[in-house]
Amino acid sequence: MKLDMHCHTKEGSLDGKVSIEDYITRLEELGYDGMLVTDHNSYNGYREWKKNIKGKTHKNFVVLKGIEYDTINAGHMLVIMPENVKLRILELRGMPLPLLIFIVHTFGGILGPAHPFGEKYMSLISTRYYQKNKEILKKFDFMETFNSCEPAQANMQARKAAAQYGLAGFGGSDSHKLDCIGTAYTRLPERISKESELIALVKKRAPIQWGGSLYKGTTRDRIGKMHKVLLYSFWLYNKVAGYSTIRKRRGQSRYLMLSTVRSSYSTGLRDRA
């Protein structure tokens, strides 16, 4: 089964230029069987598909729900939760990486760094947090080992790191524009139809293949060194936006922790009955 595992839509990402329906249409034309929607800190692209497209058109095409989460200290993370789990906190950017890992794993999800050797501030390996906590790679379930919008060297380093830590590799276009769609793929050994099935494949270390071609139309390609100005602007924006949601995140964190404790307590009572 062939999928694009890193997709941005205009419904869910501020920098997305393609509607999710046009995205699906293009991938179908290119012979893909599905996609993982990974908008920035938002499920709105997936919601658009679920509300207005699912069951009406593109009936043989599988759309999976994911998110590209902006941590406060470790760059971008791709997160996939079981289909029956809804966590509002994942749409509130700015969690520190250890808390994100704890929440995702507690509720049965998987996560891995997007473009881990990519742009400064956006990518794990370039962060101060990683330099002080390199063993954090052992906590991930997969790693994006091919990203069409990153240099070949960055992808090669990601492949080596994934192999070293025994992580599954994903390939994703990271496309925000039409001409980038379909430049990367992930091939699963069997057909799936929902997120929990993908999670199960990753956890049982099923053979997953990936590949693609590099996209030459990125902002970095077009404006050269001026791209650094955008990177610094992103860093500032992410910090401000992350701190602005602290109160909401804390409230959600307390709620999730309480729910977990209650669930564990109820399970213990049933086990003793």
Automatic annotation (TrEMBL):
Q: Which CDD domains match?
A: PHP_HisPPase
Note the Pfam families from the entry: PHP, PHP_C
Q: Name one GO molecular function term.
A: 5'-3' RNA exonuclease activity
The source's domain of life comes to Bacteria
Q: What is this protein's name?
A: PHP domain-containing protein
Q: Which PANTHER family match?
A: EXONUCLEASE, POLYMERASE_HISTIDINOL PHOSPHATASE N-TERMINAL DOMAIN-CONTAINING PROTEIN
Q: Which InterPro entries match?
A: PHP_dom, PHP_domain, Pol/His_phosphatase_N, Pol/histidinol_Pase-like
- Boundaries of every Polymerase/histidinol phosphatase N-terminal domain copy: 3-73
